[in-house]
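Q: What does the predicted 3D structure of Sulfotransferase look like?
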Amino acid sequence: MPTVDPMPEYLKEQDRSHECMKLISTLPTKPGWVVTALYNYQGFWHTARQLQGVISCQKHYKAHDTDILLVTTPKSGTTWLKAILFALVNRTRFPQHHDHHPLLSNNPHVLVPFLELKLYVDDENPDFSSFASPRLFSSHLPYNSLPKSIGDSQCKIVYLCRNPKDTFISLWAFTNKLRLQEMGINSLEETFDKFCEGVSLYGPFWEHVLGYWHESLKHPDKICFMTYEGMKEQPELHLRKLGDFLGCPFSIEEDKESVVEGILEICSFDNLSNLKVNKEGKLSSGEDNSTFFRKGEVGDWKNHLTTEMVERLEKICEEKLEGSGLKF
Ligand code: PAP
């Protein structure tokens, strides 16, 4: 039996362009969680292959005024928000009770693709002809690394992050699934140290969050700042807020038809994680769709982190977020 390689394409180190190789040779490097090395580009950590997508989309992506970009820190509920945004902006084309709703047969990552991890990884000029307007894209890029056309256009950004304790546990569990069998699983202690030092995919976590937090305060019409915990606690309120932010508020008629509730139901962890496509399907980049559905809860960190780890993370949070007005 051939061994199955669980590592997605964007984490693989081969097949980099000459331009990317040249850039990489100039960048600070540290050992990665799955791949051998992470590289620090514009203050944040990336894999070699992913960097190719980053520099390509920085150079070539031309945002339309109507584009909607979902930016998240990894493992903060990206898959969930992709589903929510897709269902929200396409609710006239695809009512939530539609038997053939695209979310029933496609993983949300297919419907809302990543710019730098998918569309621009292999192609400097991806084919956007099949994208309906508004085009929905996603990214994990920090604010300062976004393609310039995003700031120059009227396109909107929805930003999602999650408390760092659950983010870390979710990332640790996810990267363990991506490691080759012979590599074994990552030690919780070692990866925790790396996370605290900021050496994680698209880390440092705090700088990522603060970059968008400050911009969202300055430009609330451009960036809608959200948290996984907020979405879990008051999903209806936040879905309505998204509708208002994106210029597609729910109407009285829609309220009579319980459209908000319907969208939340189709996008719920129970519904999505039990669909055949998400139990058995795979992304073209190689990951099993099921790797994006683990527990979907707030507070799983309590089952993994020691008191010392919690204290350390809370202290970092206090120091980094001091004076920002942001709390987890
Ligand atoms: P990504 O950033 O790599 O795309 P992302 O979707 O953010 O991944 O991470 C998956 C997390 O969202 C998982 O959290 P956990 O490890 O703590 O369980 C996953 O379970 C959770 N998740 C996925 N879908 C949903 C959903 N519909 N509702 C709530 N949480 C979800």
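A (community wiki): The structure tokens above were generated from the sequence. Residues 278 and 316 are 36 Å apart (CA to CA). Residues 72, 74-80, 166, 170, 173, 267-269, 272, 292-296, 300 surround 3'-phosphate-adenosine-5'-diphosphate (CB under 6 Å).
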